[in-house]
Amino acid sequence: MLTDEQLMEAIVDGDRQAYAGAVKQHGLAIAAYAFRMLGNESEAQDIAQETFLRLWTQAHRWDGDKASLVTWLHRIAHNLCIDQLRRTRADTGSELDEFRAEADTPAADQLAQQSDRNRLEAALADLPERQRSALVMTYYQGLSNREVAGILDVSVDALESLLSRGRRALKSRLSKYVYQPDSTGGVNR
Amino acid sequence: MSLSPEEFVALVEAYGTDLQRWPVVDEVAVERLRRHPQCRQAWQDAQTLDSVLDAHALPAFEALEARLLQQALPGRPAGLFERLFSWLTPPMSEPGLMPWWRPLALASVPLMLGLFIGSQYDPAIDYGQALSLEEELYFISFSDYAEVM
Question: Which pTM value belongs to this model?
């Protein structure tokens, strides 16, 4: 298996086999990250596609001393996700505000009606962007705290604060469904 | 490294209960602190949240790999030699004689070079025996007298 350096050198030289190797190695992880950030499969695939297009066109900019390939790809995907979230918010923000103002059902009740999976996705989507990114990259993507701190341009201490606040917020949003025993005596999830 | 209960709680609240996610691990201290009254609740809460997070499934992304592999990738900007070579060898699918003039031009370069060198060098002359300019002028001056005579 090629090292990051060998792979990127080959990609810089225009080797499409090396590009395919990078896709096979990291494609799913990048799509998974985007999905957990955006909560939408189609948008996650778009982000993954754009990330790998940039891998191809910007490969010469990668510096192995600063970041591993997987970290660099996550940084690209992260920036694309943030752009996408802001675009979506700009497009639908006013409509959502109106919808929320008019809705009869409180948000907590809406959460109760959702499936476990949707409930978690909704709770994740409700987190501020940086807390969500920190949590997803550290918890799901297997990146180290230094790598995630580098991607988010924060110190490790600040990252830990983001993680704690994110987890606390998730716990608070899900507490009604997760942290209370159900009728069978088990934890209701 | 010796963990205090406060540090333990801070780590559990940030990274959860899977020690592989922790930046530093002292397993003996973790085992001890998990039972500490100050830490037990934090550990259990984190464990519950972890189990919810772990249950989150992803879509299959079945067509993703094919989509990434099939996307159109722009070509690399070619180097000087490659650009020259591709200019000299255009696609032969072009109609008429047009595609051939560039390779013909390339093939004529040695010919032109040979003609140039040939025009500068006459093999009939023995350049080792050739007269210098002064000698030439000397003999020409005699020929002037010969014409008078």
Answer: 0.71
